[in-house]
Structure to design on (248 residues):
């Protein structure tokens, strides 16, 4: 009888080890393929999403380019919002920009999430990376990171007709409105930074380091990973306390 119990205990232990190995493999696969991971601390679970390289839109970029594919990110954001076990989201950015509409689509989804969200700019959050950074409920930037603000640009053939410039203006206005609505910077000031001349050698615009980005009101706070995680866990606890009070 004792041998049967020992055998059952050994079998259960082996199954637990196998399950743990499978979970680790799945986590590693998620990091490799999607650049994201879900981590648990105590009773709280958060999802970490990285947006790196170039934001890939409707056209596939060359294989040597590091890209963030919007068709991968959008379903993840929906799943995070709907998953009962995930309490919050941290978005880590180091991007040169990319497709404007794809970037805005991701930014709108992040801004529309009910769960606590925080963003952290490391290295760079350039071009369409700016709306992505401000989309979270709280934004952080490392002191050494930079953000480049410039007008909308288009690659390829452009017709030299008034309608083309009107289209540029409309798309630029969408970015201006989104950034102004989701940060402390005014639409007029953001436009000024976008149209600055003499700062970039080959372009119009402004490069902001971490300190200046916070002073301009574009980013909420200077800080690193610990600062962003501390804020996220604090916000998660506040949200749970509020839900508990409402339920009572």
């Amino acid at each position: 009888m004792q041998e049967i119990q020992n055998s059952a205990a050994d079998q259960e232990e082996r199954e637990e080890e196998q399950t743990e190995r499978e979970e680790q493999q799945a986590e590693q696969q998620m990091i490799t393929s999607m650049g994201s991971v879900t981590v648990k601390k105590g009773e709280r679970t958060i999802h970490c999403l990285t947006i790196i390289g170039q934001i890939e839109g409707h056209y596939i970029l060359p294989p040597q380019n590091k890209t963030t594919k919007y068709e991968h990110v959008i379903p993840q954001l929906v799943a995070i919002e709907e998953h009962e076990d995930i309490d919050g989201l941290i978005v880590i950015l180091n991007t040169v920009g990319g497709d404007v509409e794809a970037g805005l689509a991701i930014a709108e989804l992040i801004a529309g999430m009910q769960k606590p969200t925080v963003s952290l700019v490391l290295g760079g959050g350039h071009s369409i990376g700016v709306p992505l950074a401000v989309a979270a409920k709280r934004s952080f930037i490392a002191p050494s990171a930079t953000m480049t603000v410039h007008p909308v640009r288009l690659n390829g053939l452009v017709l030299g007709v008034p309608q083309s410039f009107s289209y540029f203006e409309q798309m630029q206005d969408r970015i201006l409105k989104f950034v102004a609505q989701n940060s402390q910077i005014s639409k007029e000031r953001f436009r000024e930074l976008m149209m600055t001349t003499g700062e970039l050698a080959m372009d119009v615009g402004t490069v902001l380091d971490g300190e200046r980005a916070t002073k301009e009101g574009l980013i909420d706070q200077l800080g690193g990973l610990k600062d962003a995680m501390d804020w996220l866990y604090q916000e998660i606890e506040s949200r749970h306390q509020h839900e508990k009070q409402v339920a009572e």
Q: What stands out?
A: The mean pLDDT is 88.
